Each structure stands twice: as C-alpha cells, then as structure tokens.
Amino acid sequence: MLAVVSSATSLGIDAIPIQVEVDIMGGLPGFATVGLPESTVKEARVRVQSAINNSDYLFPDGKISVNLAPAHIRKEGTGFDFPIALGILAAQGLIPIERLNKVFVLGELSLSGQLRPVRGMLAAAQLAFEQGFECMIVAKENGAGAALVEGLEVRTVETFRDAAHYLVTGETEKAPKAVPDVSQKTEEHELDLSDVRGQYQARRALEVAAAGGHNIIMTGGPGSGKTMMARCLPTILPKLDTKEALEVTRIHSAAGLTLGAGLIQTRPFRAPHHSMTRAGLVGGGNGIPRPGELSLASNGVLFLDELPEFSRNVLEVLRQPLESGEVILSRANATLKYPAKIMLMAAMNPCPCGNFGVPRKKCRCSPIEISRYKSRLSGPLLDRIDLHVEVPPVELVALQSSTLGESSANVRERVCVARALQKSRLGSSKLNATMTKAQLVETATPAPGAQRLIANAMERLGLSARGYDRVLRVARTIADLANSPVVDTPHVGEALQYRGDEKMLLAA
Ligand SMILES: Nc1ncnc2c1ncn2[C@@H]1O[C@H](COP(=O)(O)OP(=O)(O)OP(=O)(O)O)[C@@H](O)[C@H]1O
Ligand SMILES: [Mg+2]
Ligand SMILES: [Zn+2]
Fold first, then answer.
1. Interacting residues of 62 by C-beta distance below 8 A, sequence separation 6+
2. How far is the CA of 306 from the centre of ligand 1 (A)?
3. What pLDDT does residue 81 have?
4. I want to staple 302 with a disulfide (CB 3.0 to 4.6 A). Which of 32, 297, 380, 467 is the partner?
C-alpha cells in the first residue's frame, strides 16, 4: 500500500512543499530513497529503523521505497525522518488515511525515537497553513516557532511513540498538546543612549543616521565610546513591525538560531569579528547555503568594529548588498536570495596606534603607516557611507557628571517622526539614504542660500560630485528632523560636517 505524508524542505528562508511517498513491497528487505536526497536524507534509513523499533512498532520486512516529490528539488537535512517513519506505519495500514491527510509533519528522529527540532520551522508552518492543513506535529522545541502562524493548530510531541499513538488510535485525550499562543517577547536591549556621557556631536550624528537610514562611520581614539554608541543604534530605530519581525525570525530560523524561541521582536544588531570570512558575511556552507551576517543583520544594524582590520576582499563583497538590500548566492544546485536590508555602522581608529589627532596623546605611527592603514578601505565602500564622524575623547567632566544623557526612547520618537515624513514623500519603504537620484533632485534641491554654501564647500574643501549627493541626502534628513519642507542653510551646514575627509576618500 502506498502512503503519502505532507512535509517540507527549506530553501533559503522559504519552505517548499514535499510529498513523502512510502511504498512497501514483498521480497528481500531493502530501503531505497529517491528524489535527489543529499546524504543527510539518505541516512534517515538508519534513524527511522531504530526509532520505529524503539517505539512499540515493528520495522516491516520487505522492500521499502521512499520517494520525495517533486523529484527535481534537491533535499537536505534531517527533517524527513519523521514523515518517512509515519509513512512506513501508514503503508502498513496502521494509520487511517483520512487522519494522516490532515497533518503536516517535520522533524528529526533519534535512534531511541525522540523527536528533535529542525531549522526553518516558521517558514514550514506558514506553508502548512497556506496549504490548508489543520494541524502540524513538531518537536517540543519547535513548538513556539511554528505556533507563530495564526490559525494553525500546532501539536508538540517528545517522542515518535506519542505522535504515532495519536495518529494510529485517534485518541484525543492523549493527543499531543496544542501549543497555546506564544508569549510575545518584547524587545530587549542591554544599553541605552542615556548611558553615553557627553559626545553630543556623535550622538546627533547617530540620530541623523537612524532618521534617514544612512550608513555611518565613526573615527576616534581608543575608549571614546564608539563601540558603546554603535550598540545603542538599534535602540533609537523604530520598533520592528510584524512583517519585519516575521522576516527576521525566518532568517534566524533558516540559520538554525531560533529553534526554541518565538517571534524575534528586537531589531538585529550583528557585530562580527574582523577575522570573519567572506562566507561568514554573505552566507555559505555545504549543501544549501546558510544566511550570513549580512542577512542576520537584515532589518537592523551590521556593526563592523575596527573596519580597516577586515580583509579587503571581505569588505568588497559588501558593496552590492548595500546597494540592493539582498544577497544572491549561487551554488551548483541552487541560486538563493537572502534579504540584507542593513544599516551599516563602522568604527575605526584614526591610525594603527589610535592616537593620531587625539589631544594630549602622542601618535607613534609614521605617515606611511597611517596612509597604508586608511588605504585598506576602498573608495567605493566609503562612498556608500553617508555620515563620517570624528569622535573626540570623552571629557572628564562629562564622565564624572551625574546627569544622564537623553534616553533612547526620546530620540527614537524624533526618528519615527522624521521617518514618517520620508514615507509620505517617497512612498513605500524608501528612506532618504536609499532614494533614487530623481527623488533626490525633486525633494532635496536646496534653497538658494544653501546652494551657495555647497558651491563654496565644493570649491574650498574640494568636495567631489559623489560627495555632493551625499551631503544633500544627509541635509534632507536633517531638514526632516527639523520638520522643514525645504532644505536650507543650517541643514546643509550641518550635513557638511559629516562629509568626512574627502582626501581620504579619494586617496583610497
Ligand atoms: N561617552 C561615554 N560615556 C560613558 N562611558 C563611556 C563613554 N565613552 C567610553 N565610555 C566607557 O569606556 C568604555 C570603552 O568604550 P568603547 O569600547 O565604546 O570605546 P571605543 O571608542 O570603541 O574604543 P576602541 O577604539 O578601543 O574600540 C565603555 O565600555 C564605557 O564604559
Ligand atoms: Mg571599540
Ligand atoms: Zn598612531
């Protein structure tokens, strides 16, 4: 008898429906899996056989054929253990077809018959719901992830024995527990802007960056608070809306980072170490590539501390995703897209020893060492960073003062107002940092006085054409924070302070 069990495999952050067909025929005992299974799927045979034998059922004699349909999609992972094992029982007529047809299952089995969690559960649960399934049975640890899908009944079991007992007998009183609504965790942050003393200019720059979605780089000596302020950036960005939270959760679930958790409500903040590889940044791994730091930071902040210490070829791969907001990974067996809608925040010292230009400190670096240090950053990368900020050492008075800085909640309110203005002007999810050239011309052409200011700067400071556009984008955001429809002199004046060292940009 042929049994069909509904399940899924994950491809990127998406789940693809897979029908697990199991047939048992007489003849010599055997077990064959077809339908492009990777080795992890082929190994299911071993786990399934032991799990069934250790769960009060007998593994059947005879030739067992398992087909994973559609056959042209490559399958990997251990999630087919559970549907295959159920299919083997159903093929023996032990599970009524009408009961089996109502459930969607996914999970790994241990040799003893424990049901174990798998990656990508949220996407699989969304798929099950879209396909009209009433019920999904998953491992206990996957329950919260699957239960995020409203309207889907999620039942969790600890063992294959419990799941089989439920499906074979239909005894509802012993049925695996339905997962109640997952407790909605609220966002959590360790730091608050009120912890940052002094540093008014850097704080302001952080607010401008958050308001317009601009990438930002801070340069300053050791201990000036760059890392600390970077960690505060997510706390002044708007809270994640439901759509963003679901997307973040799906990405983290695809990376296998959220097996037990419910919806992620905290804006991502990722701070990979500078020894990170290209694959670590964009994604990769054997088989179907996993999301990298760029995607894990999507809808949030990617913080690259000590920017010049990153290898140049790692930094180069940032350019395309910064522009398009997504990462494309090509493999022999699949081309995948992962979201990478990030705000980049970078920090660096002014020179290898950190003291160049810092008052009362002596720099020990030679001019050649300094220029070599800076030249590790390519012009095209720096060109995608709208705000360049120099962070001086914290004043002792500021550190000793008992008055707290303004709280993140206050700053976030202004950021949200400025973002709402951009939304009504630019439509969709565009921000000043990502508006098109046409939109820039249409909405950020400065008033005559401000025009003259920019013209002067271009001449006196050697502002390049690409620097010009950056100044205008930032000035537009500063005008939004001031609720001004026109970009005027004070806005341009402030924006010019964040233009960065043009010479450094050009030299690189
Ligand atoms: N403005 C500040 N207000 C309050 N504490 C500060 C401030 N700046 C620095 N600190 C304190 O100094 C510590 C070091 O700061 P942080 O790590 O942010 O410096 P940094 O600029 O990143 O230095 P480095 O260049 O060495 O990485 C912080 O953990 C914090 O305790
Ligand atoms: Mg630091
Ligand atoms: Zn130095």
1. 24, 25, 26, 27, 29
2. 14
3. 96
4. 297
- SS3 of 274-303: the string is CCCCHHHHHEECCCCCEECHHHHCCCCEEE
pLDDT at 150: 83
Q: Are 476 and 430 in contact (CB under 8 A)?
A: no
Atom of ligand 1 nearest to the CA of 229: 18
Distance, CA of 461 to CA of 408 (rounded, Å): 34
pLDDT block averages, 10 residues each, the chain of length 508: 92 91 92 91 94 94 94 90 96 91 95 93 92 91 84 89 88 56 64 89 96 95 92 94 89 77 85 92 81 94 94 89 89 80 94 87 90 84 89 80 86 96 87 91 90 85 78 95 94 89 47
Q: Is residue 468 packed enough to be buried (19+ CB in 10 Å), middle (13-18) or exposed (0-12)?
A: middle
CB within 8 Å of 314: residues ≥ 6 apart: 276, 277, 278, 281
CA-394 nearest atom, ligand 1: 1
CA of 438 to the centre of ligand 2 (A): 38
Which among 196, 200, 227, 351 is the best mutation to test ligand 1's pocket, defined by most ligand atoms within 8 Å of the CB? 227
The C-alpha atoms of residue 354 and residue 359 are separated, in whole angstroms, by 12
Q: Check if 262 has its Cβ closer than 6 Å to any atom of ligand 1.
A: no
**pLDDT at 501 (0 to 100):** 58
pLDDT score, position 262: 73
Centre of ligand 2 to C-alpha 212, Å, is 24
The pLDDT value recorded for residue 92 is: 93
Residue 381, pLDDT score: 85
Distance between CA atoms of 5 and 18, rounded to whole angstroms?
A: 9
User: Which residue, by CA, sits nearest to atom 30 of ligand 1?
Assistant: 225
Ligand 1 neighbourhood includes 196 CB (under 6 angstroms):
yes
Ligand 1 in reach of 443 Cβ (< 6 A): no
Pocket test for ligand 1, best of 224, 226, 397 (most atoms within 8 A of CB): 224
Residue 8's Cβ-side half-sphere holds a number of Cα atoms within 13 Å equal to: 29
Q: What is the pLDDT of residue 508?
A: 40
224 lines ligand 1 (CB under 6 A): yes
Q: Which residue carries 């201990």 as its tokens? A: 223
Provide the token pair at 367: 């001019």
Closest ligand to the CA of 373: 3
Query: Which domains are seen in the chain, by residue range?
Result: 2-169 (3.30.230.10), 193-410 (3.40.50.300), 435-508 (1.10.8)
The reported pLDDT for the residue numbered 216 is 96
Q: Select from 496, 430, 508 the least CA-distant residue to 205.
A: 496
pTM score, whole prediction: 0.85
- Distance (Å, whole) CA 204 – CA 196: 12
Q: Residue 505: what pLDDT?
A: 45
Q: Is the Cα dihedral 180, 186, 189, 195 positive or negative?
A: negative
Asked if 149 and 182 count as a contact pair (C-beta separation under 8 A), the reply is no
